Amino acid sequence: MLKRYLLAPGPTPVPPEALLAMAMPIIHHRSPDFLPVLDSAKKGLQWLYQTKNDVLVLCATGTGGMVGSVNNFFSPGDKALVINAGNFGERWTKICKSYNLSVEEIKIDWGYTVKPEDVEKALKKDPSIKGVFVQASETSTGVYHDIKALAEIVRKYDNTIFVVDAISALVAHDLRMDEWGIDVLIGGSQKGLMLPPGLAFVGVSEKAWKFADKATSPKFYFNFKKERESLAKNQTSFTSPVTLIIGLNESLKLLRAEGLENAFARHERLSRATREAIKALGLDMFTKESPSYAVTAINAPAGIDGQEIYKNLRVKYGITAAGGQGHVKGKIFRIAHLGYAGAFDVITAIAGVEMVLKGMGHPLKLGTGVAVAQELLMV
Fold this sequence. Notes:
The protein is α/β, with parallel strands linked by helices. It has helices at 16-22, 35-49, 62-71, 87-98, 116-125, 147-154, 177-180, 206-214, 224-231, 242-258, 260-280, 306-317, 343-359, 368-377, and strands spanning 5-6, 55-59, 79-84, 102-107, 129-135, 137-138, 143-144, 161-165, 184-188, 199-204, 295-299, 319-320, 322-323, 332-336.
């Protein structure tokens, strides 16, 4: 028997409280029994998003939330500014172009963060830009962009909204939607919210809803105005993913008991311990600036395929982490510390990396990184 450990940046492990709740007999999504379930989830998401506005619940993965955040607020020909700093920045460009938006990109070398002044220059040069699109945590590179600084810039432009993919950042990072002026904030169930894939969440500001009134892009399933009307009745427009929403309530209960500040601090601590342990092994971070608290991206040692590190972790030791994406496939590997994660998840990951690398002929002393992680994670 090989025991499995899930240390990927999505899906992430699901706590037993949520699993048990989701194992209960199914209820009908239009019955009175379901109304308080969605009402509780709705209020919990507003707490997590730090907003008084609606947070829509969609039966989709996070990418569905990204798609809906384009076709509900923009029209063909609208100008979009995309921060393209990784695989998911590239996805923003593809989605915007699929709805015939005119896309300008700020391209960032993978592993680096966007400079807020570059966004400000682009908006000053062309105030007709309708939307600025960015990842909070770029999962493919392990970089966190300064969302607060970017929001402060965009909110000065009345005819521009700020759209943030926070799919891997929610719970790991402090994202103050109302206070900072984030207009559209997207999340997914299978990351920090500790659930199986299948739910997308989209917080929408009043400024963004005014854009929705004018948007002419085609929409049917992802129709946010209809979803808002349904949410006011504690319903979703189409068949509700009842089981996942029941699990969502349990995950939100766990987070409320922990407290937001404590959740952010936990992710920061796990992230720092992972980085310092990896450095102690003589490995280099792929992330050069502003590391995400959700996932750590690591350069594979010279002469070793990063995909083989990822494969050996899974096949030999049952540890599912992540490999590289796009042009860095084979050059890096990634370890997540997101959602239902604690000190011994990091220690397990580091121990596994040490064993895999030693088995592949890389010179190191077993326990070197583990000892560093232990020191940093002791309470």
